[in-house]
Amino acid sequence: MCRVQFFYTLFYGSTILAATLLSAGCSSQLIVKHDYDNSVNFRQYSNYNWMDTAGSDGVNDLNDTRIRNAVERDLASKGYFKTTGGDPELLVTYELIITDKEDVITHNYGYWRGARSETYVDVSVYREGTLVVDIVNPAQNRVIFRGWATGVVQGELSPEQSEALINRAVSKILGKFPPN
Length: 180
Prior knowledge:
The protein is an alpha/beta fold. The chain has helices at 61-77, 159-173; strands spanning 31-36, 47-50, 81-82, 90-112, 115-137, 142-153. A six-stranded mixed sheet has the order 1-6-5-4-2-3.
């Protein structure tokens, strides 16, 4: 199984989000999904501001800044500008979710008098990370676009590698925004 490194977690105040762009022997891949309200005309909006980030208590200030900068660059490239006063037309927030996962594979080798002679069980324990970006209509207080990227937590990365992956993940997450 090809495991692509995506998020990295150290507990007790260390880096929560980091990633890698390379994985030995396989191509780099993020699983990216999108969902949106197809009744919304996204072209009617031109500005946004940030909501408080919910559920990402472990994201340190460095990675919070990296994520926000990546989102802001991507939205600016699509003609959206960040407003600091008044009522924004859209609100943006993100969440980082880290979960423990197990892969269990059973291998049965050979038969002897109709019975299996050997059984091996491989258990692979890993962490999976998901970065979710939501775009909210504040007038209706509801999510109108959600995109997320999921990958396996592995390895420690340099600040440059972390920033490169965050930029790549956000670009893919917002790749379908605006959807119409």
